[in-house]
Structures are given as structure tokens and as C-alpha cells.
Design brief:
This protein is an alpha+beta fold. It has 3 domains: 102 residues, Alpha Horseshoe (Serine Threonine Protein Phosphatase 5, Tetratricopeptide repeat); 148 residues, L,D-transpeptidase catalytic domain-like, CATH 2.40.440; 114 residues, Nuclear Transport Factor 2, Chain: A, CATH 3.10.450.50. The protein is built from 13 helices and 14 strands. An 8-stranded mixed β-barrel has the order 2-3-4-8-7-6-5-9. The chain is elongated. This is L,D-TPase catalytic domain-containing protein. It comes from Aquifex aeolicus (strain VF5). Pathway: Cell wall biogenesis; peptidoglycan biosynthesis. Pfam families: Cds6_C, YkuD. GO terms for molecular function: carboxypeptidase activity; endopeptidase activity; transferase activity.
Length: 397
């Protein structure tokens, strides 16, 4: 019986069935599981060498890192991933492997300083998602790939901070999926410290997830915050939250949260912040919208709104009825716009944004009424044209 089992194991060990049947896909699976023999490895190597494609050096270094990981050489793998990121600091799977491995080695700060320098160079110029921003206005950008929060004042990088995001990679879709949502959001409220569990480090700011675009896609969930932690160096455990964005507590209290204005501070969360993007002339769109309002051209004014438009009073029909009463009853309307901020959202592989969030200071005057405050719009592309998906106004008190 023992001899039979020994012979069986030997026959299995030297089985070339996948080769004989030309099952390359099965060879990939065996390679991933570490079960390939020498001949199978040679076939795989030859297979790839015969593919008529150019493999960039950063990809070779990523592959080298994977092999070093497989051998348990974590520090060497991290070095390979860092070299890969230096060659291609934009979308690069090496970022993910770097961030997963960094928790397992000593002297983490040495490696973190290297990645920081790469990112500082990469964001020396504002990314294309930051379309417009007044010079004294703050915008926050979170990149899940690099696990960093970038703070821009105007279009200049003022600060960058390591953060940790959801334990599961990918865009949030439903309650409890352990993912951090990707999109453009604004801060809705500072959570009072006495209402927080100690795990939040006494500081948390809520985001408006799901935003109007998320709701259009049917996404669910709630309670997405930017918050601290009672754990030391919690921000240095990449991909470890239930969906929130977590930063170092003392830095959050002294450097990040003081820059947040609940009325008009946007935070964009991206898998990867794009290197290039074809953005529309959103500024011209807003000026045309303003012109139609001032000219009291109701039909043209309504044409700027999406068929999916939602506001506190209902949908597009209710909006048109409301605006018919408030526009046509006026003898004149004058609208002044200033401090325009435009942040675009896109996903990896997109040539153009999926939507924009626009904020500006609005002064409205007519013969019977006047007000001023912050106007915020979510703008999508519908049938090839920009349309307002949602709109809200925060009146100056």
C-alpha cells in the first residue's frame, strides 16, 4: 500500500498533462500556486518571450518584487517596488504591494520617506481633476493607491499626509463592504468628541456619502468619516479601515481639520489621481446658466438641468414649476459669481470626467428679493452635454 501511494505521488509530481493538452491557463494557475516543475516554467518563460509586446522596466521590477515576496525577501521586494514607482509614479500596482508589505518590516520610515519624495515631485503641479480653485481656498484629494491625503491651497500643494483607507480594495457599493467610496464629497459636520467612541481619537468629520451621483448608481451605506484613532501610528497600517479615511490624530487636529470649512471644502477620493484628463469648459457652462437666469429665459434655464435632477422639493418637474414662479414674476434678475472652485471625478482608464462638483459664491438681486451665499452643484454629462444633477444653496447668515 505504501509503495502504491509513493508511485502515485511520483506520477503526480511528474505529470505533464497540462503541457500535453496545451492548457496554458492551467499552467498559470499552477505557477500561482507554486506547483510548476522546471519544464513547465521553461514553457511559460518561452511563451511570454514570444509575445510581441514591449514590457516596460517598471513592470519588470513589479514582477521582480512579486518573486522576491514569494521567496520571503520582503525588504528586497519593497526596494524593487520603490524602483518601479520611481520609474512610473502614476498608476502602478507596485504602490499596492509596497503598502501591504510596509506593515511587515522594520524601519518603515526609511521607505516611507522615499515614497513621500516621489509623491512630492509628482504633485508639484496640480492634477487635472483640480480644474479651478481660488488661491486661498483649500481642496483635499485622497489617493487610495498611494494611501495619501493631499491638501491644495489654490493649485499649490500645501501638505501631504499618510492615511489608511478601506480594508477591501475597490469602490464602495453597499453598507458593510469594507471599501472606501470613490468620488467628490463635502464635509457635513464635525462630530462632537463626547459622541465618539474612544477608537476615533476624539476627532471625526462626516462626509456626504452617498452623494447625488452615488445615489443615481444605487450605492448604499453611510457613516463615512475622516477621523483619527486612539492607536499609535494607525495611519501607517495601509488598507485597514471599515471604509473611512483615517489620519494621524494629532496631525488631523492641528493641521488638517482647521482647514475645513463645512460650507465649501471639497474632498475628492480616487483610486488613482489621473495624470491627464480631457475636461470640458465648465466655467463657460456656468456663465451660460447664469446668463439664462438673468435674462429670465425659463426654458433655456431649465435646459441646463438633468432629467435625473433632484432637489429638496422633488425632481425636475417640481423645479421647473418653482422656477417659473420665482423667475417670471421678477422685473429684473442680477447674479454675481465669484470664488469659483471646480473639482472633477474620474476613474482609472477614463479619458474624461464622470462628473464635476462646482462651488462658488453667489450674490442674487431682483426687484423684490436678494440673498447671497455658497452655491454647490453636481454636474454630469448627459446626451453629450453638461447638465446639473443636483444643486444646493447655503445662505449667508
Amino acid at each position: 500500500m505504501i509503495l502504491f501511494l509513493l508511485l502515485l505521488s511520483i506520477s503526480f509530481l511528474f505529470s505533464y498533462e497540462e503541457l500535453e493538452k496545451g492548457k496554458i491557463r492551467e499552467l498559470f494557475k499552477k505557477f500561482y500556486e507554486g506547483k510548476t516543475n522546471d519544464l513547465e516554467l521553461k514553457v511559460l518563460k518561452s511563451y511570454f518571450e514570444n509575445l510581441n509586446i514591449t514590457v516596460e522596466d517598471y513592470v519588470k521590477l513589479y514582477t521582480e518584487g512579486l518573486l522576491l515576496e514569494k521567496e520571503g525577501k520582503l525588504k528586497e521586494a519593497i526596494q524593487a517596488y520603490l524602483k518601479s514607482i520611481e520609474l512610473n509614479p502614476y498608476y502602478n500596482p507596485s504602490y499596492y504591494r509596497f503598502n501591504f508589505l510596509i506593515r511587515k518590516v522594520e524601519n518603515k520610515e526609511i521607505y516611507r520617506e522615499k515614497i513621500r519624495k516621489i509623491l512630492e515631485k509628482r504633485f508639484k503641479e496640480a492634477p487635472p481633476v483640480l480644474v479651478e480653485n481660488p488661491e486661498n481656498h483649500y481642496v483635499f484629494l485622497v489617493e487610495k493607491m498611494s494611501q495619501y491625503l493631499f491638501v491644495f491651497k489654490g493649485k499649490k500643494l500645501e501638505g501631504m499626509y499618510p492615511v489608511t483607507t478601506g480594508m477591501n480594495i475597490g469602490d464602495k457599493e453597499r453598507e458593510g463592504d469594507g471599501k472606501t467610496p470613490e468620488g467628490v464629497y463635502y464635509f457635513t459636520r464635525f462630530i462632537p468628541p463626547e459622541q465618539l467612541s474612544e477608537i476615533y481619537g476624539g476627532i471625526a468629520v462626516a462626509l456626504n456619502y452617498p452623494n447625488p451621483y452615488d445615489k443615481l448608481l444605487g450605492k448604499t451605506g453611510s457613516g463615512i468619516w475622516l477621523h483619527g484613532s486612539n492607536e499609535k501610528d494607525r495611519d501607517k497600517l495601509p488598507f485597514s479601515t471599515r471604509g473611512c479615511v483615517v489620519a494621524q490624530t494629532d496631525v488631523l487636529k492641528t493641521e488638517i481639520v482647521p482647514k475645513i470649512n463645512l460650507s465649501n471644502t471639497l474632498i475628492g477620493i480616487y483610486k488613482v489621481i489621473p495624470q491627464s484628463l480631457e475636461v470640458e469648459n465648465v466655467k463657460e457652462f456656468i456663465l451660460s446658466w447664469k446668463n439664462a437666469w438673468e435674462k429670465k429665459d425659463l426654458n433655456r434655464f431649465i435646459s441646463f438641468y438633468s432629467k435625473h435632477f433632484r432637489w429638496k422639493g422633488g425632481g425636475l418637474k417640481e423645479w421647473k414649476d418653482y422656477k417659473k414662479r420665482t423667475i417670471l414674476s421678477k422685473k429684473f434678475i442680477k447674479v454675481d459669481i465669484s470664488n469659483l472652485s471646480i473639482l472633477a471625478f474620474s476613474k482609472l482608464g477614463d479619458d474624461e470626467p464622470r462628473y464635476y462638483v462646482i462651488e462658488f459664491y453667489q450674490k442674487y438681486r431682483s426687484d423684490t428679493y436678494s440673498d447671497e451665499g455658497i452655491k454647490r452643484m453636481y454636474v454630469v454629462k448627459e446626451d453629450g452635454k453638461l447638465k446639473v444633477l443636483s444643486e444646493e444653496f447655503i445662505m449667508k447668515k
